[in-house]
From TrEMBL:
Membrane-protein topology: Multi-pass membrane protein
Native source organism of the sequence: Pitta sordida
UniProt-listed InterPro entries: FUN14 (IPR007014)
Pfam families, alphabetized: FUN14
Family: Belongs to the FUN14 family.
Keyword match Transmembrane: yes
Protein name per Swiss-Prot or TrEMBL: FUN14 domain-containing protein 2
Length: 147
């Protein structure tokens, strides 16, 4: 049988993107963080505004959730007191104790799975690269929670 000579064309992505202006427009000239393109004041403003919006939403949702949980518990107590429902408190206590034991068991190991560890490492790298943006976000978040 005849020898078959297969040739493959290799596309060098780095060389390809150097010659494509649309690629640079979409993905930016540097491979670093997108915040590096902005000056310090802009980064603080962007971080502060997004942080304030996030804090404001967290505050509103937190109040709504607390009201719903508290109101639900209050209605259950009224229904239990008036006889509409009967709560087996021994069963509730047993389930709470079982949940406590499971939490103690899982927290005693103190070992993170590799997937979680890699995600945590990614977040830390992002925070280090974007210290100014993150600082603005944290300050804005606290202001949003307070307003």
């Amino acid at each position: 049988a005849g020898a078959r000579d297969d040739t493959f064309n290799v596309l060098d992505l780095a060389e390809y993107t150097k010659n494509r202006p649309w690629w640079r427009k979409v993905f930016g000239p540097s491979s670093g963080s997108s915040a590096e393109k902005y000056n310090v004041a802009t980064q603080l403003l962007l971080g502060g505004v997004t942080g304030w919006c996030t804090g404001f939403v967290f505050q509103k949702v937190g109040k709504l959730a607390a009201t719903a949980v508290g109101g639900g518990f209050f209605l259950l107590q009224i229904a239990n007191h008036t006889g509409y429902i009967k709560v087996d408190w021994n069963l509730v206590q047993r389930d709470v104790n079982k949940a406590k034991e499971q939490l103690k068991f899982h927290s005693s190991g103190n070992k993170m799975s590799p997937e979680v560890k890699s995600r945590v490492d990614e977040v830390i790298i992002f925070l280090k690269k974007n210290v100014i943006l993150t600082g603005g976000f944290a300050g804005g978040f606290l202001l949003g929670m307070a307003s």
